[in-house]
Amino acid sequence: MIEFKNPPKNPGRGIHPETQAILDALQSRPGEWALIKTDVSAAAGTNWKKREGFEVRSSSIGKPRGKWDIYARWIGVTA
Description:
Blueprint: H1 17-28, E1 34-40, H2 46-49, E2 54-59, E3 68-74
């Protein structure tokens, strides 16, 4: 016997509360750079770079090899 029904929603989907807090903080101070992650891999900034309205930069200056700081700012969404 088979049963036709939709699969359950994945509770892991959506924005993580820590990420949402960072987004909210950046949007409350448009144009101002903030250090959002420290001592992470360069790839850690990749997801942030995909977010519309945000500018993201990474820096390894003064960091151990393979460690980066990720900076971001809210620049707004252009139509």
